[in-house]
Fold this protein.
Amino acid sequence: MNSIRRRWVIAMLLVLFSLGASAAERKEYHATVDPDGVQRIEVLGGSYFFDPNYIVVKVNVPVELKIRKESGMTPHNVVLHAPDAGMDIRLDLTTDPQVIRFTPTRAGEYEFYCDKTFLFFESHREKGMVGMLVVSP
């Protein structure tokens, strides 16, 4: 009986963990244009998340993205591959903020993500370390 109860508890914990890990909360940010004509955004990357993970900017307006990772040993990066829209970013994240500057040239929705992985496990992207950059007209 004790063994059955233990297996049931372990099974329930696994179910709860998998539900929590797969449901990424949407953290939205709408960039405004500063007096100098630049849209500035600060992003934190960490244990399989970006905060914010849904960012709205204007097309043909310069963007300054300040990004860093939370402390810890797990490596993270940010990848946004949309060269046809003026954005081709691949940057390993550090705990010190790094600034990425670009000007989006085409309206649309562009996914950014961490493509790090360890051995045969799921990539950080598959674990939910994904965001969306929405470029509005």
